[in-house]
Amino acid sequence: MRRVARWRSAGGARGRVLAALALLTAAVLTFHSAVPNAVGRLGSLVEAFLPWLGLVVALLLVAALVRRSAVALVALLLPALAWLGQFGGLLLPSERGAPHLTVVQHNVSDENPDPAGTAAALAAAAPELVALEEVTPSALPAYAAALESRYPHHAVEGTVGLWSKYPLTGVRRLDIKPAGIGEGWSRGLRAGVSTPEGEVAVYVAHLPSVRIRPSGFASQLRDESARLLGAAVAAEPVDRVVLLGDLNGTVDDRGLAPLTSRMAAPRRGFALSWPASFPVSRIDQVLARSATLAEIRTLPATGSDHLPVVARITWEPAAGS
Question: What Gene3D superfamilies is this protein classified in (predicted)?
Answer without folding.
Answer: Endonuclease/exonuclease/phosphatase (3.60.10.10)
